[in-house]
Amino acid sequence: MFSMYKLYLSTLLKKGYLKMERDCLHCTNTRKVAVIGCGFVGAACSFSLMQSGLFSEMVLIDSDPAKAEGEALDISHGVPFAKPIRIYAGGYDDIKNASLIIITAGANQKPGETRLDLVKKNISIFKAILPEIKKRNFRGILLIVANPVDILTTVAQKLSGLPENRVFGSGTVLDTARLKSELGAHLNVDPRSVHAFIIGEHGDSEIAAWSSANVSGIPLHKFCEMRGHTNHDKAIQKIAVDVKNSAYENIKRKKATYYGIAMSVKRICEAIVRDEKSILPVSSMMHGEYGIEGISLSMPAIVGKDGVETLVPLQLNETEKADLQKSAETLRDTLKQNEV
User: Which residues are catalytic, by number?
Assistant: First the structure.
């Protein structure tokens, strides 16, 4: 019966009665996600997504198939406590109809190592992964999580051949959450009421955009005074440093950091799957904004079912603009030294 339907559909296509691509028989499944890389971050992201109820199918892919099988088996045992979802280990052929691929594969950041130190190793890994994705005519969204995320997002855009809006990175979503958490603790207020962004590189040159920060519409400095804090400059400088160094502190203590980024990835996936048009500081290509061109870095953007719709203008003072341009230049110089 199904074969007769396909023959009938094919006839209609040939006669021009239906205007659709032939490969629409293999259209993306909006409820299917693929996770490439089953290390600490990949496994934590998979676990977080299993609990989210966003997807009904999840395939795990790793250079070590046994590792992918073990994680899929372990996570699937918790499905009776969550929403129905099929979780399994697979290969690149299993990504064909996925609506979203999350790439976490890459070398781990070691104690004392910066994210930029990972460039050569992880570009090499991406050179192996992206051609496999391209071969399968993938038509969904590619979310880059591996570090250094801004540089690898630029690399993925170049190697995947996908439109820029459908290839973006997790950026500073986690850094921004850390900033809100620190400010919430400092002001003794719900961090969800804090509106502030970390922008630029997800790394050592990141910038806290203090000039646009507020708490439920109240400028940050005014709210600090309401809560009895007056030494603003010293306080925000310490918070910015603590946020920037938080990953290093985690790595020093437990050799890795993965729960925070897993929750950040879940949040980004929510915005995509539900077409929320949420504003998130993801890593996407810059085209002249703030005088920056040809490099991906993290700025607030509207995120929905088609990926990044547009960047959102952020009020920055002259110092913040200059720091953002320096951050972009740091990334551009690093990328030039590691040409794809």
Answer: 202
